[in-house]
Amino acid sequence: PWSIRLDEVTVRYPNGTIGLNRVSLDIDAGEMVVVVGLSGSGKSTLIRTINGLVPVTSGTLDVGEHRVSGASPRTLRRLRGDIGMVFQGFNLAGRASVLQNVLVGRLAHTPLWRTLLGVYPEADKQLAYQALDRVAILPKLYSRASELSGGQQQRVAIARALAQEPRIVLADEPVASLDPPTAHGVMNDLRRINRDLGITVVVNLHLLDLAREYGTRMIGMRAGEIVYDGPAASATDAD
Ligand code: ADP
Ligand code: ADP
């Protein structure tokens, strides 16, 4: 797993909006961190910056072995190959099968011609099966993604991230569109990935209750700044 280090990172969007304001943050390899804050506080900017999707305006960002701030497009592509992303909206190809969706996570490692022909190396398929088994969705292998429930679809998205053999998993509001029992199931999966595989996990949440239950370390954000960094269990609304 990889560490994430931000030193005085500021992100200013082209329209002048400040997404992150001189944020310094050290996340160690193998940590599970939950990030909470109101809408517009900078949570998804933080995740998109770590993933190299949003450029750092000033300050330094190191993710594992990569210096992300000021990095070349080539470095950013390699970085993204090592980071598994999970989104609120699942981002699956609805008409494709569960297996095909998970194998997309292997794209960076698979020659293009194989992908175009739908011929996947046996090793890729084994990785996909393992990932689907880990989130208990292997029996749905050949179902169309659109036929699954929301919770099942999010598990497929997690399996897709895992099949990439990531050093880090970043999840942006992964349970925001799920009902509470399903949300707990998905949070449990993320926690098991962290504990069993030792992968560094960062999860954005807008529900403090869930964050308290599943985070060890909680980061609270407001207006692009970190206003709380401490144990999740003892954090209160006032923090
Ligand atoms: P979030 O769930 O993070 O609050 P939003 O609904 O704020 O998401 O934003 C959804 C999309 O709109 C994101 O891709 C974000 O980059 C973009 N966006 C948000 N605010 C602005 C803005 N002020 N100007 C341009 N794009 C924005
Ligand atoms: P959160 O994820 O906590 O809802 P965001 O990171 O989406 O917060 O947003 C932080 C700030 O950056 C907000 O003021 C938002 O409007 C702004 N923002 C987000 N994306 C964009 C964008 N693409 N262009 C301009 N402003 C943006």
UniProtKB/TrEMBL annotation:
Q: Does the keyword Ribosomal protein apply?
A: no
User: Could you tell me the keywords of this UniProt record?
Assistant: ATP-binding, Cell membrane, Membrane, Nucleotide-binding, Translocase, Transport
Gene Ontology molecular function terms on file? ATP binding
**Organism domain of life:** Bacteria
Species annotation: Microbacterium algeriense
Question: Which stretches make up the ABC transporter domain?
Answer: 4-239
Protein name listed in UniProt = Phosphonate ABC transporter ATP-binding protein
